[in-house]
Amino acid sequence: MNFTDFLSKIQHKFSDAEQALLKRAFDFAAKAHQGQKRFSGQDYIEHPIAAALILAGILPEPKIIAATLLHDVPEDTKFGLNEIKKEFGEEIATLVDGVTKLGRVRLRNSRDKYYVENLRKMFVATSKDIRVILIKLADRLHNMRTLEFVKEAKQKRIAEETLEIFAPIASRLGIGEWKDELEDRAFQIVYPKEYAQTKKLLEQTLEQRSHGLKRLQKELSEILHTEGVKFEEISGRIKRVYSLYKKLQRYDQDITKIYDLMALRVITKATAECYAALGAIHKHLQPLPDRVKDYIALPKPNGYRSIHTTVFDAEKNIFEIQIRTIQMHEQAEKGIAAHWAYAEGSKPAGAEKESVPAANLKWVEDLQKMQEQLHNPEDFLNALRIDFFQDRIFVLTPKGDVKDLPEGATPIDFAFSVHSDLGFFMQGAKVNGKMVKIEHKIKSGDVVEIIKSKKPVKISQDWLSLARTSNARNKIRHYLSENQTGIFNTLKSLIKRSK
Ligand code: MN
After folding, report:
1. Is the dihedral of CA 196, 198, 200, 202 positive or negative?
2. Hey, what domains does the chain have and what are their CATH numbers?
3. Average pLDDT rounded to a whole number, residues 467-484
4. Which is catalytic among the residues 43, 76, 352, 462?
5. Is 76 a catalytic residue?
6. Per residue in 39-87, pLDDT tens?
7. Which of 43, 48, 52, 274 is deepest in the core (most CB within 10 A)?
8. Whether the Cβ atoms of residue 368 and residue 359 lie closer than 8 Å to each other
């Protein structure tokens, strides 16, 4: 691919200076990789070009695109980081260096300490600059697209790493588009049998139900017109194979219990129209009880916003309907990159002016804190799994600050997340104004208030099993090890652990 073709594939108008930068990076990378081939037999340069185009698809920012073009230069060519620094400056060189370091992370075995150590380095590098991880994700996505040319054993390792590390990171950054593709491609290689089964099941079910979806799409459009609700479009979306596979595990493999297999998406210009659409839909189609989720008022931790509801059609088939604005839709696809784009001031045409929630980078801070606190790699891995890969809840402090906690979190977790020492002074807790026990499981949207005592309270071993966050657990563990009250507690904890 030549530079003109490359540029024409990016849907963004760059200034002359920006174009000149991109051209220099393009030519430099082409020269550096000259003569190198990929396993597919293609010229190596096609890989950084493809990765740069993937990245530009969600974030057309010239410096990041230039760094993506250059991302394999220091590792694989005779040109070093210093040459990149001389040619392109400190900022681009730092991004490229970060990507090179991330490239050394290898998932060998999830119990392997070397891997865990590397994983830590990866997160340290990442938390310095999220752009590095965006480049690495684009790089990985292109590698996944061309994985068939790689030896089988290596395919498996890369796909496992993608499923365990990269897809969850894409998800955490809210980049739905990338997460979906990474998951489905990796799933196919790591669990080929399960993939084939799930795909077949999905296709069979769709065949039976897609007629109903089309009919409902038409009906929905009529309902909205009748009720005078303005909307941009209604589209259908089909659940991804990996996402269905995971959900089937939670629903006894019973596909009839999965209501969001096919969903309709109503896209509007303004938030008010989302609520108007919800009202109109419920007026004409019977909703299932307890299935309305307002992620506009309470977004998911990765910034996802939408209203979900599940309704019966005239023939008592069940469908999910997702309602969101153009801007929310773009954020669901591009995640953190969309926040960036808005910060630059380029809103999609027709989008309403609304305040964009600050990019949620709290998880990065959390990871950094975790680094400082955990010295045992196995603990780190467990912490990572618990906090990183499970669903999160949003709770509020009495002042209205939002706290991001894992599902199943208790007031203990909340207290330690508010202030490192609040947990040690916690006498009791109120949820939505009512006193609760410390083992109470907090739910999204709860207002949690910690009742503080004047003196530090005596913390028992039980707290450890009630806390869900590694932050709280580490502090409790540390406290307990410094306040050993004899062999009894140690024995008790050993018994618990062996259960
Ligand atoms: Mn690469």
Report:
1. negative
2. 3-190 (1.10.3210.10), 192-343 (3.30.460.10), 393-497 (3.10.20.30)
3. 88
4. 76
5. yes
6. 888 999 999 999 999 999 998 889 999 999 999 999 889 999 999 999 9
7. 52
8. no
